[in-house]
Automatic annotation (TrEMBL):
<keyword id="KW-0819">tRNA processing</keyword>
<feature type="region of interest" description="Disordered">
    <location>
        <begin position="1"/>
        <end position="28"/>
    </location>
</feature>
<comment type="pathway">
    <text>tRNA modification; 5-methoxycarbonylmethyl-2-thiouridine-tRNA biosynthesis.</text>
</comment>
<feature type="compositionally biased region" description="Basic and acidic residues">
    <location>
        <begin position="108"/>
        <end position="118"/>
    </location>
</feature>
<feature type="region of interest" description="Disordered">
    <location>
        <begin position="97"/>
        <end position="118"/>
    </location>
</feature>
<dbReference type="GO" id="GO:0008023">
    <property type="term" value="C:transcription elongation factor complex"/>
</dbReference>
<dbReference type="InterPro" id="IPR027417">
    <property type="entry name" value="P-loop_NTPase"/>
</dbReference>
<feature type="region of interest" description="Disordered">
    <location>
        <begin position="350"/>
        <end position="374"/>
    </location>
</feature>
<dbReference type="GO" id="GO:0005737">
    <property type="term" value="C:cytoplasm"/>
</dbReference>
<dbReference type="GO" id="GO:0002098">
    <property type="term" value="P:tRNA wobble uridine modification"/>
</dbReference>
<protein>
    <recommendedName>
        <fullName>Elongator complex protein 4</fullName>
    </recommendedName>
</protein>
<keyword id="KW-0539">Nucleus</keyword>
<dbReference type="GO" id="GO:0033588">
    <property type="term" value="C:elongator holoenzyme complex"/>
</dbReference>
<keyword id="KW-0963">Cytoplasm</keyword>
<comment type="similarity">
    <text>Belongs to the ELP4 family.</text>
</comment>
<dbReference type="InterPro" id="IPR008728">
    <property type="entry name" value="Elongator_complex_protein_4"/>
</dbReference>
<feature type="compositionally biased region" description="Polar residues">
    <location>
        <begin position="1"/>
        <end position="23"/>
    </location>
</feature>
Length: 374
């Protein structure tokens, strides 16, 4: 009997062999994809759970403020916390020194009101305090005490898919000294082909066809066409590099992120670069003490910038994504934690409460009474 021929098509899913195993740093996504965290829980939620393996993320920088570094630092820290090999390319002379500025994951002792685990622990503590008023024997109390202690230990030692990072506390050195971290100074490279060779060599360790691969690789490239680099004016070579990197990442158990100053790239090539991205975002700083903007947005004093989402990864599907919001505010909660939130309009009458105008008028003139005027 003739052997059955395997059916192949352009839409066949090339699933990573190593990702099928359950691991805290990788989770299953829609359409047979596997997701890794961006290091920002709010961004993961917006992207549909995380960044799909094989994706190329591109971030358009703002010339007024380095807000793109917030995204880059959290992305790199998340990979190092999960013990994932990292390739970091930067136009600085000492890119390895940048690792000392990466944020550290927050500890369970941190007082964070938005943490569900903190609320759960508080409930357990209150329940334990009221146990003394119940007529239970000592053995039951010991059992309850042991259960609470066990749950606390599990909570403390649990490795999360997406951590919250404390921007004021640097990452411990053991996270990046004992791991495979390759740092490249693009300023010293003779051309962009040298960077492409390094990236290809790095990604060859994470082939989807290799069943022995047990980890995920991450590539972080900062300011791709920075003026201090020799290849800053080679736009065609840059375009070829991005296209090659996207193809190589797609066939590997890895993700890559590139930041670039869009103001230094011609409009034609900027559009070409954006078209190659699986996920495209841009950051924008807000002017200091913009009184008009302060009247429009609630919590303006905590906003440091805006994140615009132009495209989200759509792998193994042709269905377009429908986002709740494409512009998010970048906030620093307690000046320590990076938070992304939907923009909320300040009340029209200046009162507290609803984040939208209280007027129900359907005419051009506003009505403070809230009655419908047809």
């Amino acid at each position: 009997m003739a052997a059955t021929k395997t059916r192949t098509s352009s839409f066949s899913r090339n699933l990573p062999a190593a990702s099928s195993a359950q691991s805290p740093e990788i989770k299953c996504g829609p359409n047979g994809t596997f997701l890794v965290s961006s290091g920002i829980p709010d961004l993961d939620k917006t992207l549909g759970g995380g960044i799909p393996l094989g994706s190329l993320v591109m971030v358009m920088e703002d010339s007024e403020a380095p807000h793109h570094m917030l995204l880059l630092r959290n992305f790199m820290s998340q990979g190092l916390v999960h013990k994932q090999p990292l390739l970091y390319a930067s136009p600085s002379k000492d890119p390895r020194g940048f690792l000392g500025t990466l944020p550290s994951p927050s500890s369970p002792k941190d007082d964070k009101s938005r943490s569900h685990d903190a609320e759960q622990e508080k409930g357990l503590r209150i329940a334990w305090q009221y146990k003394k008023y119940f007529g239970e024997n000592q053995s039951n109390l010991d059992g309850q005490r042991g259960m609470i202690l066990f749950r606390f230990i599990v909570l403390y030692n649990k490795q999360e898919f997406s951590n919250e990072f404390d921007l004021r506390r640097p990452l411990d050195r053991h996270f990046y000294t004992g791991q495979h971290v390759d740092c490249i100074s693009t300023k010293d490279l003779p051309n962009i082909a040298a960077l492409q060779e390094r990236c290809t060599s790095f990604l060859s360790q994470f082939s989807r066809n290799d069943a022995t691969v047990a980890c995920t690789g991450r590539i972080a490239i900062q300011s791709l066409c920075a003026p201090q680099c020799e290849s800053s004016n080679m736009e065609w070579e840059m375009l070829s590099f991005i296209r090659s990197l996207k193809s190589t990442v797609r066939s590997a158990i890895a993700v890559a992120i590139i930041t670039f100053p869009s103001s230094l790239v011609s409009a034609t090539f900027c559009k070409r670069w954006q078209h190659l991205a699986d996920c495209l975002v841009s950051v924008k700083a807000i002017p200091d003490e913009d009184k008009e903007l302060a009247k429009l947005l609630t919590g303006y004093q905590d906003i440091v910038g805006f994140l615009n989402i132009h495209r989200v990864p759509r792998i193994n599907t042709q269905v377009p994504a429908v986002l709740e919001a494409t512009t998010l505010s970048i906030k620093l909660q307690k000046r320590r934690y990076l938070v992304l939130e939907c923009l909320n309009q300040a009340p029209v009458d200046g009162s507290s409460g609803s984040s939208y105008g209280t007027s129900g008028s359907c005419s051009g003139a506003s009505s403070k009474s809230g009655s419908l005027d047809f």
